[in-house]
Write a structure and sequence with these properties.
By secondary structure, the protein is α/β, with parallel strands linked by helices. It has helices at residues 21-28, 47-55, 72-83, 96-108, 115-118, 183-201, 208-230, 235-252, 259-271, 275-290, 295-305, 313-330, 347-354, 358-361, 370-380, and strands at residues 11-14, 33-37, 59-62, 89-94, 120-121, 131-135, 147-152, 157-162, 170-173. The chain folds into two domains: 11-178, Rossmann fold (3-Layer(aba) Sandwich); 183-380, Dehydroquinate synthase-like, alpha domain, CATH 1.20.1090. Bound molecules: fe (ii) ion.
């Protein structure tokens, strides 16, 4: 058996209405002054959590809202502002962007490292501040993962920090926080979570202890995403997606993603296409490219997506790819790069940029050359 190290917060609370419990958790650890990192749409919805924080005698310092995928420059500003406050803990409540910023702030506020020092794997010196995360979308799984992503504007590329110190001390996963997420965001984030599970299952470093989460995540998301997109108040569907997204997050630390994420980075970094949409555009094409390297593996993905087995593993895998296209169409997500107004001339430079994301490409079941990346972008065009 190959080696795997499983990481997740020591405390994970899961269930409707668990969000305000984060206040008691922080108070029990002697925290009196907490930095709240959230976003403009989420901040006005935090009444019950703010009440609980007040009841527990916690003073809340609210950071500047994280409203789009954060840049290094924005992060450095937030870090400088946070260092001027006497912060004792960090509470990240939001989608992946807000939680990623919360995670990096908690790790860097007390230290001397800058964020550019820590891009890469295991370069973070440590984290002394308690860190608690609450997801308000079902997508990134950042509430349990050791990853954080920022946009390096100079390089027009998203860059990742991976470190066990970024795993929060506690996650409170409350599906009720996701009921008001609009359909487009529900679709994009859900397809992102689905991509995490698929890329972790069909991965060079796949492991049986991670496969169980990945397969169950695929099954839950495929079965419930359309329902949540078409009726945001569907509590059963929202709970299934929250769970699927959590499972996707659990796959991140030990196994991580592959070529879909690597090739989607230039779409986000250069053309500001939402992360989940970029992944969903590329997913079928990368899967078709990868299938010959592991048809049985992709057939298992297809079965978890809910398709019937066909005559061969490759044929079953192809049914899975078709099912993914159908799912994203039914969720109203764009299908081609041209629909996203990406100029065809950009493909060679996007392929070049994607090749830099070696920390993910190394996980892909089939080696991807720059020429392969060009072909994949062309087929997605
Ligand atoms: Fe992702």
């Amino acid at each position: 058996m190959n080696l795997v190290t499983l990481l997740q917060p020591p405390r994970v609370a899961l269930g409707n209405g668990c969000a305000p419990q984060c206040a008691e958790y922080l108070a029990q650890r002697g925290v009196r002054r907490v930095l709240l990192v959230s976003s403009t749409p989420v901040l006005p919805t935090l009444g019950a959590i703010r009440d609980a924080l007040q009841t527990s005698n916690l003073t809340v310092v609210t950071a500047a809202p994280v409203d789009s995928e954060p840049t290094c420059a924005q992060f450095e500003q937030m870090l400088a502002a946070a260092r001027r406050e006497n912060i004792e803990a960090v509470l990240g409540i939001g989608g992946g962007s807000a939680m990623d910023v919360a995670k990096l702030l908690a790790a860097l506020i007390r230290g001397t490292q800058t964020v550019t020092d820590v891009f890469g794997i295991n370069l973070l010196a440590g984290r002394t501040l308690p860190l608690v995360c609450l997801p308000t979308t079902s997508g990134t799984g950042a509430e349990v993962s050791p990853n954080a992503i920022l946009l390096d504007e100079a390089a027009a590329l998203k860059k990742g920090v991976v470190s066990p110190h970024l795993v929060p001390d506690a996650a409170f996963i409350d599906p009720l926080l996701t009921l008001t997420v609009p359909p487009g965001v529900t679709a994009a984030t859900g397809l992102d979570a689905l991509t995490h599970c698929i890329e972790a299952f069909a991965n060079k470093f796949a492991h049986p202890a991670v496969d169980i989460y990945a397969l169950e995540g695929i099954r839950l998301i495929a079965a419930h995403l359309e329902r949540a997109v078409h009726n945001g108040q569907d509590r059963e569907a929202r709970a299934a997606l929250a769970l699927g997204s959590y499972y996707g997050g659990l796959c991140f630390g030990p196994v991580n993603t592959g070529a879909v994420h690597a090739l989607s980075y230039p779409l986000g970094g250069r053309f500001h296409i939402a992360h989940g949409v970029a992944n969903s555009l590329l997913l079928p094409h990368v899967l078709r490219f990868n299938t010959p390297a592991a048809p049985e593996r992709y057939a298992e993905v297809a079965l978890a997506l809910g398709v019937q087995a066909a005559g061969s593993a490759a044929a079953t895998a192809e049914r899975g790819v078709e099912c993914l296209g159908q799912l994203s169409r039914h969720c109203g997500v764009p299908q081609t790069l041209s629909e996203m107004n990406i100029p065809r001339e950009a493909i060679p430079s996007m392929a070049q940029a994607a090749m830099q994301v070696t920390r993910l490409l190394k996980n892909n079941l089939r080696p991807v050359t720059e020429a392969d990346a060009v072909t994949i972008y062309e087929t997605a065009f």
